[in-house]
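Schema walk-through. Below, the input block comes first and the output block second. Nothing else is stored per chain. Lengths vary across the set, and this one has 198 residues.
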Amino acid sequence: MNVSRLVRQAQRGNKEALLQLILAEQDAYYRLAYSYMGNEHDAMDVMEDMIVTLYEKLEQLNNREAFYSWSKTILVNRCKTVLRKQERYLPLDGEDDLEPSLAAWTADNPYRYTESEMDMSALLAHLNPRQREAIELRYVHDLPYQTIADMTDSPVGTIKSRISQGIQKLKAMIGGDRYENDRGEITGASADHDPIRT
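--- output ---
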């Protein structure tokens, strides 16, 4: 599929070309909308709003190759607008105070060092909303750093920092700093707690 050619045709009024572009990524659009909205009905509503906006503003897109990052940015912005109106989107200021207690979550969890037993959504819930959003956009939705920066109106360096800090928190939760070297000894921060003698 030649995205640039289809965008050019859509900009000239070819509705079928725009439809073809949208259908090619419909699953990605839905997953992205659902991750923000949390239910099928609202996700479909914001997708419809995105399609209308694309139709109305497509002629403003100069870089035709950037159609998908541009359209996903429109989708994310629409999700945030709807959530604010529904008062479900918390402002990002002071959100570190809202993080659940990590110790409470891991204290009685026998699987806290077993990645395969973890529910990723439960893990991500322990990150602050900015870190969670950046990690989900990067690794769940496979978006490039620049697109995430555009979507969140943040510098690329800030996005990389949020992802790095979030991953460090996740590693700490699942014992990711703990691994065996080639001699079977546990190394890393947990080595002091669980030494293995050979």
